[in-house]
């Protein structure tokens, strides 16, 4: 018997301390025909694993997790989020059906896994606990909930100790960097999955980024989060809080009114030498929440003419009353900031000024 064959047998042999579990698994699997699928043995440094494709229905029947909450001594997986699994199932059943990322598994002794190098085939038992999920539990449970099956890229490690499974789990979940939400929002249009509301926010952001008269010119970052700028995620969150003020409005109309408002806000912040602080997420969101209150007063005083001058008529007295300490501090939420600003705005609004201005 040559060295490669001996290596294959060692790689696919049962775990040495799993005799009792194997005997139990063998009894439960009696009469079942082992499953054999094409696979490729891959070496990466000190590790070897098998790369193959399995139907999602089979993964759902043969994979399990070891959640920490149920097994505090040996468990390491996070709890399943049913909502996330259901969204994957819905995605599959909607007909998109492409989840190209490989599911990573660790073969357990119950799998009776064996690799035939000559045939390029991996054989294992169809057992509910044949494979421990290292990465991809939400995908697999989503596959289980889906009505339709899809082929799934799979990576299977064999003969891993529990400590090695834990280290592999940590490596996958700490060294992979997720795609930033800002970038996902920026490319949503290219993928043609924007909703009408998303499209409006996208267009308004782009106008603020490109127009020369923009109050936020040079202060926006569409595809990433950068210090000293307003990301698309922050911008969208702020505008969603006041979406009721712009029902059925076009992007150009939203831009014209908001730009006048934000230019007035920057002038007010400039009184405290804090003009650039408008990029602070809590301050920007708080000012967005304040918009409806201010716009209503502009409409009453100036017949709905939303110019920079008319916004300043309401905002400049408000900003003059603010102290430097009223600007955002570390840990202050935009909700708390807005509540404080709302009181400050109302405190300076006098009936006398209202009647005789």
User: What is the string of SSEs from the N terminus onward?
Assistant: HHEEHEHEEEEHEHHHEEHHHHHH
Task: Tell me what portion of residues adopts beta-strand conformation.
Answer: 5-15%
Instruction: Compute the CA-based radius of gyration.
Output: 30 Å
Q: In terms of per-residue confidence, which ranges show pLDDT below 50 for 5 or more consecutive residues?
A: 1-31, 68-76, 349-357
Distance between the termini: 101 Å
Taken from the alpha-carbon principal axes, the silhouette is: elongated
The largest pleated sheet is described as: 8 strands, mixed
Number of strands: 10
Count up the helices: 14
**Helix-strand category:** alpha/beta
Number of domains: 2
The percentage helix is 40-55%
| Strand order, sheet with most strands | 3-7-4-8-2-1-6-5
What is the residue-averaged pLDDT?
79
Protein name: DGQHR domain-containing protein
Region (Disordered): 1-21
Organism: Methylocystis hirsuta
Question: What does this protein look like?
Answer:
The chain is an alpha/beta fold. The chain contains 14 helices and ten strands. The strands form two sheets. Strands 3-7-4-8-2-1-6-5 form an eight-stranded mixed sheet. It has a two-stranded parallel sheet with strand order 9-10. A hairpin with a 2-residue loop joins strand 1 (35-44) and strand 2 (47-55). Helix 8 (196-210) crosses helix 9 (232-240), helix 10 runs parallel beside helix 12 and helix 11 packs across helix 12. It is elongated, with a radius of gyration of 30 Å. This is DGQHR domain-containing protein.
């Amino acid at each position: 018997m040559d060295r490669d064959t001996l290596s294959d047998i060692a790689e696919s042999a049962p775990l040495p301390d799993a005799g009792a579990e194997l005997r139990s698994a063998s009894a439960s699997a009696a009469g079942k025909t082992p499953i054999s699928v094409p696979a490729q043995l891959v070496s990466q440094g000190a590790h070897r694993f098998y790369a193959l494709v399995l139907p999602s229905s089979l993964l759902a029947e043969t994979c399990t997790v070891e959640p920490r909450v149920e097994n505090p001594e040996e468990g390491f997986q996070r709890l399943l989020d049913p909502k996330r699994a259901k969204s994957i199932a819905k995605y599959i059943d909607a007909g998109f059906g492409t989840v190209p990322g490989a599911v990573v598994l660790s073969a357990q002794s119950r799998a009776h896994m064996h690799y035939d190098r000559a045939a390029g085939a991996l054989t294992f038992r169809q057992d509910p606990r044949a494979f421990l999920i290292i990465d991809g539990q939400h995908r697999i449970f989503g596959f289980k909930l889906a009505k339709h099956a899809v082929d799934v890229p799979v990576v299977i490690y064999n003969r891993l100790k529990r400590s090695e499974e834990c280290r592999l789990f940590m490596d996958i979940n700490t060294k992979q960097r997720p795609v930033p939400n800002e970038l996902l929002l920026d490319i949503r249009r290219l993928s043609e999955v924007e909703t009408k509301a998303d499209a409006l926010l996208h267009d308004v952001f782009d106008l603020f980024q490109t127009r020369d008269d923009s109050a936020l010119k040079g202060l926006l970052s569409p595809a990433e989060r950068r210090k000293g700028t307003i990301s698309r995620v922050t911008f969208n969150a702020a505008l969603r809080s006041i979406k009721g003020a712009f029902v059925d409005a076009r992007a150009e109309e939203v831009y014209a009114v908001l730009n006048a408002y934000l230019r007035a806000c920057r002038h007010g912040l400039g009184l405290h030498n804090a003009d650039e602080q408008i990029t602070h997420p809590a301050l920007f969101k708080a000012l967005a929440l304040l918009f409806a209150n201010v716009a209503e007063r502009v409409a009453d005083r100036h017949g709905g003419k939303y110019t920079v001058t008319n916004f300043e008529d309401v905002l400049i007295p408000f900003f003059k009353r603010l102290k430097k300490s009223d600007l955002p501090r570390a840990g202050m939420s935009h909700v708390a900031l807005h509540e404080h600003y709302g009181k400050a705005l109302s405190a300076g609004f006098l009936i006398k000024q209202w009647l005789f201005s």
